[in-house]
C-alpha cells in the first residue's frame, strides 16, 4: 500500500472513531432522557448491556443491526443516532396558524397545543385560555398519568374524584388524570394557564 493509501485508511479510521464517539454520546443522552438504566435499554433493545456500555464509552464500532435495535428502543431514527454533531443547534419555529387548537364542549375554553407533536403520546402541553365559566371535562388517561395546571391569569379549579382545589395566578395544581377530571375557569374574569400532561408516568399507589 502506498503512502496515499495509508493516509486515506488513517483518515477513514479517524472519521469512524469520531462518528462512533458522537453516536455513543447520543445514545447515552437519549437513554438518560428516558430515565433508562443500561439493563433496561438492553432488555428493550435486545443488545447486550456490555455492548451498550462499550458504545457509550466509544470502545466499539457497532453493526448497523445493533444501531437499528437501539434506535427502535429509543424511538428515534437511525439518522438521529448517527448525527455527526451533538452540538448542532436545534430550533424549530411554529407560527400561530400552524398551532392546533382544541375547544371544550361548551365552546368557552381553548387549548393551543404548544408542545411538540412528536411527544404527544407521552408528554403534552397546552396554552389554555378560557372565558369565565368555561369547563373542560376529560376522561381518564392511562394509569399513572399526571397533569399540571399553572395559572397565569384569572382563577381555575380542578375536580378529581370528588375533590376540588382552586388556584389563582402564580399557583399550580398537580393531580392524577388517570380518572375523570374537570378543569373550570371560575370567577368573573377570563383565565389563562399552561397545562402539562405526563402520560406513561410511574404508577402511583
Automatic annotation (TrEMBL):
GO terms for molecular function: DNA binding; DNA-binding transcription factor activity. SMART domains: HTH_XRE. GO terms for cellular component: cytosol. Gene3D superfamilies: Jelly Rolls, lambda repressor-like DNA-binding domains. Residues 27-81 form the HTH cro/C1-type domain. Keywords: DNA-binding, Transcription, Transcription regulation. Transmembrane segments: none annotated. InterPro entries: Cro/C1-type_HTH, Cupin_2, Lambda_DNA-bd_dom_sf, RmlC-like_jellyroll, RmlC_Cupin_sf, TransReg_Diox_bact_type. This is Transcriptional regulator with XRE-family HTH domain.
